Amino acid sequence: MNQDKTIEVLKKQEEITDLLKDILYIRYGNRQPLAFVHTYGCQQNVADSEKIKGMLIKMGCTMTEDKTQADIILFNTCAVREHAEDRVFGNVGQLKALKKSKPSLLIGLCGCMMEQQHIADKIYKSYPYVGLVFGTHVIHKFPELLYNAVTSGKRLVERGSDDGEIYEGIPMHRDGSFKGWLSIMYGCDNFCTYCIVPHVRGRERSRRPEDVLAEARSMVKAGYKDITLLGQNVNSYGKGLDTDVNFARLLKSVADIEGDFRVRFMTSHPKDASKELIDIMAENPKICNHLHLPFQCGSNRVLKQMNRRYTREKYLEIANYAKSKIPDLSLTSDVIVGFPGETYEEFCETLDLIREVKFTSLFTFIYSPRVGTSAAKFPDPISHEEKAKWMGELLKVQEEIAAQRCAGMVGKTYRVLVEEQAREGILNARTDNNIIVELKAPTELIGSFRYAKITEARNWILRGEITDVWT
After folding, report:
1. What letter would DSSP give residue 425?
2. Which fold has domain 176-288?
3. Predicted confidence band at 388 (pLDDT cuts at 50, 70, 90)?
4. Which of 45, 133, 331, 342 could form a disulfide with 41 if both were Cys (CB 3.0 to 4.6 A apart)?
5. Is residue 28 within 8 Å of residue 21, measured between CB atoms?
6. Looking at the whole model, is its pTM more than 0.90?
């Protein structure tokens, strides 16, 4: 990493940010402009949007949740599935009338979708009222891009190539006050045949451990109770650094920070999940008893076609080891149904693996071809309707497992973080193994740790009562 280069680039952005304060103030009638940022997709996109919001605030903007009142609208997009892309196109289309009624409105699109040439071309051709388009590799240059778009009056498209650098010190405006994301690395080197992420986010690069720990300490000092370490594959953290710190040791160092908080992480690739990581999770009470370990498919043949680089047996070995070391472990996973060429018999191998592992919950998706990936060229003879039937079978199996697990929690007491109001008089709290519990409690408890006794389980919905309201 070239620290001198990154410092120089960010210094230039700071100077442009100062210029934009006056330019935007005058542009929007001698007042602070209102900015609306909407995020699609994964937690990494959320973390990116927090940086964009931080930069906008430094430019003198005030954030708003009402896009009809906004002077600047930014959609941070996701390219992982077709449905996410369709939502973006639909919502951008709805902005045409708003732009017509407010000519000074600046509409921008950024994120993973914009790193695909065919998408950027479509936006430029079909949505002429979109004034700024930029990809994931140039987020650190957002002030410069916005300045150029505003001062030139021309539409701007910027899709940078991955320069392999990490830009530390970008302003950040976190969405939450007690739950937060902490990116420890960027990009992905795995090139699973169905996945567009390495193509739009670049190769793996890890932040220096001292930078990660400094940010974690600042979050704890600011009162954050739940910190999630983020990476496309956190288990490969450290690659390319001149240090022997791997992810397991980094996780331990974060958990060793003084304070009352808990730490999570995602996502773990099974090919790199180590027993050292599991042992550290088991030993440290601040590390949540939750492991998100995507297996995608239970068939070895399909896993090979996916380029996942582990077998069903390897996956079960690490999952069973984790369950043996952490008795109250919550295992969650991702599953793709109907990968090109997958047979019903191979799908049934996925069902068998689900029954054996007994996951707490699953993120399930019918295969969605992504332009630019290898799998998009594979023969795919099974109809979407048939795949949807398979999905129905899978969901039924998982619902039964989840209901059994939830029923087994009734009568037990868990330490929970009270997170939000679900409805009048009811709050949602989260156990450290990532299960939501509904509580009848006052809103003053939001943001605090409490002990909750589980009183009822309806399918996979838990209800409980706080046992320490006055402590």
Report:
1. T
2. Transcription Regulator spoIIAA (3.30.750)
3. very high
4. 45
5. no
6. yes
